[in-house]
């Protein structure tokens, strides 16, 4: 059975992408800053919540990447002529590929990878280990890596049923990265298209994604900076 926090989401909690503008959040969705805690080798180990930001019932989050009030919108998108063709389409089932596994089925959607790095270390990664998941300790390590993936690019199944970590309804600003939306919040693109509701998803806030409103990892090559 799929375990998600979607059932805790209020019908009024939603995110709507304004045409060539910010992400409009309604329903008093909690907003946090989170960062990856790394090892001495630069390997991400865990997520740390560093701050809860004060918000109102409704607020606007920058997605052009140039606001002076990040993560909030300050109107810069209008001054710089920001355009956002929201092109994200399809569902995770449509886009993902099956990596395999024993006692577990791992799937991967590269189009929404944000390069958070939790899927590997200096000595192992999900793709290399999936063939070894007949060993329970390897299987447990793969599960741990997959569950830390903020975008849900990597997922796993037991006996055909998707399994998701129980996650609170919230939005997190990640260090120099996307907005991490959890708990099944409804998301609507600027053209009115409903984005597939998922337990975890990441939204572009650097302005460079080719898969808006979803993040495709472009903040890395764009050199986007907004540290927590």
Instruction: Tell me the structural class.
Output: alpha+beta
User: Taking strands numbered 1, 2, ... along the chain, how are they ordered across the largest sheet?
Assistant: 5-2-1-12-13
Parts with pLDDT < 50 across at least 5 consecutive residues: 1-7
SS elements, strand count:
14
Q: Please tell me how large the radius of gyration is.
A: 17 Å
Most strands sheet: 5 strands, mixed
What value does the average pLDDT take? Answer: 93
Tally of separate domains? 2
Q: If helices are DSSP runs of H or I spanning 4 or more residues, what is the number of helices? A: 5
**Portion of residues in helices?**
10-25%
Which term fits the overall shape? Answer: globular
Q: DSSP strand (E) fraction?
A: 25-35%
What separation lies between the terminal Cα atoms? 35 Å
- Helix-strand topology string: EEEEEHHEEHHEEEEEEEH
What does this structure look like?
With 228 residues, the chain is of the alpha+beta class. It folds into 2 domains: 6-89 and 168-222, no CATH class; 92-163, no CATH class. It contains 5 helices and 14 strands. It has helices at residues 76-80, 92-95, 126-129, 136-147, 218-222, and strands at residues 14-17, 23-26, 31-38, 44-53, 58-61, 97-100, 105-108, 154-158, 161-163, 170-174, 179-182, 186-188, 194-195, 200-203. The strands form 3 sheets. The protein has a 5-stranded mixed sheet, with no helix packed on it. A hairpin with a 5-residue loop joins strand 1 (14-17) and strand 2.
What is the compact description of this entry?
The protein is α+β, with helices and mostly antiparallel strands and 228 residues long.
